[in-house]
Structure formats: C-alpha cells, structure tokens
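Hello again, I could really use a second opinion on something today. I've been staring at a protein lately and its backbone has me curious. You're getting the sequence in one-letter code plus the fold written as tokens. I'd be grateful if you could look everything over and explain what you see. No rush at all, and the record is pasted right below:
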Amino acid sequence: MHGLIVALGLLVYVLTTHAMQQRRSATAAVAWVMAIALVPYLGLPLYLIFGKRKLAHHRNRTVDTVSDLRLGDAWARQLAESMGQPTVASYRGLRIHADGSQALESLWEVIDRAESQLVLCTFIIGRDPMGNALVKRLIDKANSGIHVRLLLDGVGRMMGGRLDLRKLKAAGVQVTIFAPILNGLFKNRANLRNHRKMVVADGLHLWCGGRNFSAEYFEGAHGQKPWTDASFDLQGPLAAQAHDLFEMDWALACGTPGPICKHDVTNAQEPFAQVIASGPDQTDDTVHDLLVTACFKAKNRILAVTPYFVPSQPLLMALTLAARRKVKVELILPKKSNHRLADLVRHRALRELAQAGVNIWQVPYMSHAKVFVMDDNLALCGSANLDSRSLFLNYELMVAFYATDDVKRFASIGDAHRATAELYQSKKPGLLRDFTEGFVLWLGFQL
C-alpha cells in the first residue's frame, strides 16, 4: 500500500507538471520528487496545496506593435516584448522619493488627483496610523463620487493585522481579496501571492515601488524608525500600462475573464519605460530572465539593491561571470533583514560572489528597496526581491526605465546606501552551518 501511494503521488506530480506546464528548476523538481517519494503522506498534500507555479492559462498581454529597435540599445525592451510585455510608453514628471515622508506626500497627491477612478493594489495594509489614514482618504474619495477599487492579497491582509474593511465597503469602495487563504488552498494557489504595489488615478498618474501601506514603510510608528525603501510616481501613458495590469489582476481575483489589452505606442517619445509583470500569470519568468540577460549584457557596472538575496543558480552564475569580466558589480543588502531564514541562507551565494570580486555592501538598517541598474541603459524598480519566491512564485511588478538621466537617478540610491554601509567579509562555514544553510535553502526556498 505504501509503495502504491508513492507511485500514485509521483504520477500526480508528473501529470500535473506536464498538463499545467509547470516549469521548475532542477533543484526544485528534485526537492518535490524526494518529498513525495520519502514522505508521501505529507509531501503529496503539500504539493497539491503549494506545488503550482504557473497558471494553466497564462494571461500574457497581446502586443500588436513592436517598438522602434533603432533607438539606442534596445535589447531589454525587445526581450520584454518577446515575453508578452507591452511596448514602451512615454512618461513625464518622474519623482524618485527621497524618503518615506516624501513617498507618503506623493501618495496622497496621486490619490487626491483622481477625478473619475482610483485603483490600488498592495500586499499589506497595516492596522496602524498609516493604514487608518489610507482608509479614511479612500472613503472620502468614494463619498465624493470617485469609483475606487482596492485589491489586497489574502496572506498580506493577515500579516498587516487584518484591517477591518467594512467601513470601506460601506462607503462604496470595491474591495477584492486576492486568493483568500482557504480559497487558495482549494484552488492550489495558496503559494502564489500578489506582491504587486501600485496606485493609479484616472489611468494617468502612477505611484509605484516596494512600499506596502504600513507605517514602517513610510514614517514609522510607536517610536521606531521607518525602513528605507524605493518608490516613485509619474504621469503619462505609462500609467495606463499599470492600470491594464491592475484590471487583469482584478479579473483573476474576481474569477471573471480578463481584458485583452492592446498597446499601440509607435509614436512614444523619450523618455519612455515599460511595465514588466512577473508571476504565475506570465508564460516566462520575465523579471528573472531580464536580470540574467542584463548581467551578460553589462559592460561597466551592475547595481542591485534588495532586502533578501536568495538567487537562482542562473542568476548567481550571471552575476559571478559579470564580475569576472571586470564589470563593477555591487550588491547592497541590510545587515539584518526582517526575515531571518533569508539572512541565514544568503551567505552561500554571498561567499561565491565575494570570491568573484563582487562588492557586497551591508547597511546597518532595514532596507526594503528593490532596484537594479545596468550601465546607464537600464534601471528596474518595483516590488520584486532577488529571491526565489519573488522571482518564480509571486505576482510582481517592476518598471524598466531606459532614459540615461533617469537610470543615473536610480543608481544614486546606491550611493546613499553606501555612505553608511560596510563591506561583507566572507568566512568559510563550518560543517553544521553549511548543512543548515543547504537544508533551509532546499526546504524553504525551493519548494
């Protein structure tokens, strides 16, 4: 009977992986097979709940036009378009927020600018002064006749303290929970969380970045210092791309057919950028593939700012080889993040990077920023961390900027961090630590 259950579990794994086109790394595939074979009574239920990585029917957007690839170094936008992302769109008035106070002020400005509709997507809304202030503003906008919609992740809602949403709904704000926990369990989506963060007013004004709507991401609360983070706001056609992405996420959460979005931006003027969506709704691992390609394309410098660093083997190899080609590679991390397991397992990759000549800077505070810069040609900023969950499981949103001046402005975020950072010192691990890192990496970051 035990052998029959093992065989059945492995058959379920093979058939679902093939039928749903669940492409996994070799390490993740081996981990699931071993879990099902060795402990089928636990491994099979866990696989049925958490094993899905890609939706059976992906929702890549239809692109009818191709951007003018004669404009500068076009490989990044060409690659993004080939993976179903929209073509480049113009923007204006880009503001990269210097700190949480400026980010909060610009958030209120974008919300206040809404004249007909306002949409928000976030992972967490805190049950704190920041969350309460946001709720009040949304209620005021709804009472003034603005069509307001809020998309909140099911797990993120719990992490934020389960904010009471009844006042919002009573005021006419449409609230949808993305993959509620129990619903996610039954639909095999419990492991697929919506980590995207955006506010779009009238399809014209975009506020975006890595900040959740909780006090620690802005001005802090209860006497504690706020985290540092990266966010921005802008205006123009690029905001419409983010709005289109929200509409598809909203449709998925509501269980309705998503809209087909066609982008005709053949007349887009510089500066321009692209919304890059990554996650189970995309056929490819868009952000991951763009990062790996950027590492091989880089000629002078690579800057990566992230709170959590648990890279895939291809991304780790690409960063290592870039450093060996004498590209200046810099990685900026918090010395201690809010996720201790991520801090534990990251050392295996950090040791390899340090040996290859990568400058790894550790800041003495919690940095939640997600920024990637390649030369003066590409800057990515948004919600994606450089860890396996973010790059392969979560719904994420990054914006790719191509204007040289704006790329340099995002690169200056690294300059601000380095002012108080110290270089990482690689140490050879003992046997126990090496085993612990490998076990946690295998169990926590591959399944």
The chain has 16 helices and 18 strands. Confidence is low (pLDDT under 50) at residues 60-65. The chain has three domains: 2-50, 89-264, 286-445. The first strand starts at residue 89 and ends at 90.
